[in-house]
Amino acid sequence: MKKCLAILMAVLMVFGAVAIAGCAPKDKPDVSQPDVSKPEDTKAGDVEGGDKKDPSKMKVVALLSGVITDNGWNQICYESVKNLSEKYGIEAEYNENIAVSDMAEYIRTYAEEKYDMIIVHGSQFKASAEELAREYPDSHFCLSYGFRVDESTADQVQDIPNLAYVGPVNMGVLIGAIMGILTDNNKVVFLGGQDIPAITDIVSGIEEGVRLTNKEAVVTTDYLGTLTDADLAKERATAFINDGYDVVSASANTAQLGCLYAAEEKGVYALGFNGDQYGVAPDAVVLSVMRNYPAIYEDVFLSIAESKWKSGMVVYTLKDNGTIVSDWHGWDEKLPKEKVDAINDVIQKLYKGDLGDY
Amino acid sequence: MDLLQTIGGYLFTDIRMAAPVLLAGLGLLLMNWSGLLNIGAEGIMLIAALAAVAGSHFFGSVWMGLLLAMLAGAVFGLLFAVLTVTLRANQTVVGAALNILGLSLSTTLNRVFFGIETTVTKVDAYKVLEIPLLSKIPVIGRAFFAQMPIVYIAFILVPVIHYFLFKTKPGLNLRSVGENPRVADTLGINVYRTQYLATIVGSMIIAAGGAFLSTGLLNFFAEDMVAGRGYIALAAVIFGKYRPTGIMVAAMIFMAGNVVSNVLQVAGVGIPYTFLTMIPYVLTIIALTIFASRAVAPASLGKPYKRG
């Protein structure tokens, strides 16, 4: 009986442990793709010379802090490697749910395997990325980072030739500018999940953005203290809406969905973030603003292939297409025309750089 | 009047948010009184939250979702009972395993059912069921009588379970199993069957709490959405001194902490959010230290029973 129990327990624990360490520890987003392109690879490889690399032969891995279905930060990175895998037929891998304490080991594993591009997705892994980038100069390390609009994060960047701190900037300004136009009550609120670089970068730009379009509005930015508790987020957003706030937006992975849901229930406007979230609350989500990591990492990927790699702070401004705005999904018909025009106008101006260097 | 209305609003939120924790606590209570310590409520709630969304999505009815969630809960309960009652495994370890299993399984199944999309699948959710006349009572009317059906069920279960545990013979049998299984056994009570039943029914009640999170308070499943409520329920049982009414009070105090932090943040008093996030937990810890010493757990709680 005891043996039986021991075996059962072991099976249970191993199953659980494997799953929590990453439901697909070495999953390839697209398995069939590399096979198709292999014959071409060999041909291309023969001709190639110098430092340039054949994109389809490069190996890329994304190391993630959370799960690829978080509707946010980690999912967008998964989309990025999936995009690379689909477009270039490369071998792209990802690992989920990596703790800060384990990151160094993961990086080492892939660096030893001579991966060309190692995406370390999150500022909390900064120390591990810096240490191992020095140790493995042959791999290119990309640390996904968030930069505040006041550039106070710039001095955190270390000069390591094979490490880039990659991220879009001024997203918050764009979100704020749209919020400023949407509000009728002149009260807007943006809720971050936690006080971490990839969230504070947005929070830091909200007020500046609102001021571009609305001089009087009350702008509140605060933090929920959770990235998963959608229910708590919903109640918090509801409390703000009951206080007269009529435009809500949030950056808190799955918890932010609760905020959008609250906006729909209460009949106020919301902005989606990090994914096209119109479907979450079609009666509230006017537009969604997204980090364009797929394009950003494609750009970085090609820079490695063409040996145009840049280290240090690699930022993508609105002008560089670091941030994208979703489709209107019919809201351009539902909103008053002057608001639609104003929003279209401010988006265009921001991307062109007419309102300042964003 | 305005202030009273605001207080009524707070009470409404408090009761609504307390319901899942209350259900989980009541389910745990049944298990505890039968002598089983299950720390796996979090995992059961998670898998139930997913099952509820899946049921509601595939069968088009939120009640089918609840049914599927309770079935999933029953399966988890059965697994717990097999491991701890029949095989006499360490209950804390099995409970921890359930939590990990619930998190991983719900994550994996969520991807299997709904794919890896940036949008979530929305499903049929509970509608508010207003009780005529009573819901018109000023201040407390809406808070108590304009809630979703599961909230009523959760609060009705409080006297029902209290009556069952302390006024009926099967309830007495259940408690005697938790106090002294050997004596219960000699008196002809089937200890194993009682523990199995308590675990399965208890897990189904916990599962109802999980289902309410995903199809009541929200209408979608998000990974790890239970966010610690299963553990809060564990604390609520002890804080509630192993009494259904006590658990109800505990769940409401904890969620009142959340309401307070909401109010403070909206008021913009400038308290850092990290402190606001702490309020419900600090309240729980304070309450625990004050009351836990006087809580008497069932004597054989957590001790495996071997017949003969």
Description:
The complex is a heterodimer of chains A (358) and B (308). Chain A is α/β, with parallel strands linked by helices. Chain A is 44% helix and 18% strand. In chain A, helix 3 packs across helix 10 (293-305), helix 4 runs parallel beside helix 5 and helix 8 packs across helix 9 (256-266). In chain A, the strands form two sheets. Chain A has a six-stranded parallel sheet, sandwiched between helices. In chain A, strand 1, helix 3 (73-88) and strand 2 (91-95) form a beta-alpha-beta unit. The radius of gyration of chain A is 22 Å and the shape is globular. Chain A has a domain at 171-290 and 323-352: Rossmann fold (3-Layer(aba) Sandwich), CATH 3.40.50.2300. Chain A contains twelve helices and twelve strands. Chain B is mainly α. Chain B has one domain (2-115, 123-294): ABC transporter involved in vitamin B12 uptake, BtuC (Orthogonal Bundle), CATH 1.10.3470. Chain B contains twelve helices and two strands. Chain B has helices at 2-33, 41-59, 62-86, 91-114, 140-145, 149-167, 169-179, 181-186, 191-217, 229-239, 244-267, 273-291, and strands at 129-130, 146-147. In chain B, strands 1-2 form a two-stranded antiparallel sheet. In chain B, helix 3 runs antiparallel to helix 4. In chain B, 53% of the residues are buried. The mean pLDDT of chain B is 90. The interface between A and B is large, with 54 and 47 residues.
Category by helix and strand content of chain B: mainly alpha
Please give the radius of gyration of chain B in angstroms: 20 Å
Inertia-based shape of chain B: globular
Placed side by side, the strands forming the largest sheet of chain B appear as 1-2
Q: What would you call the structural class of chain A?
A: alpha/beta
Q: What Rg of chain A is obtained from the alpha carbons, in whole angstroms?
A: 22 Å
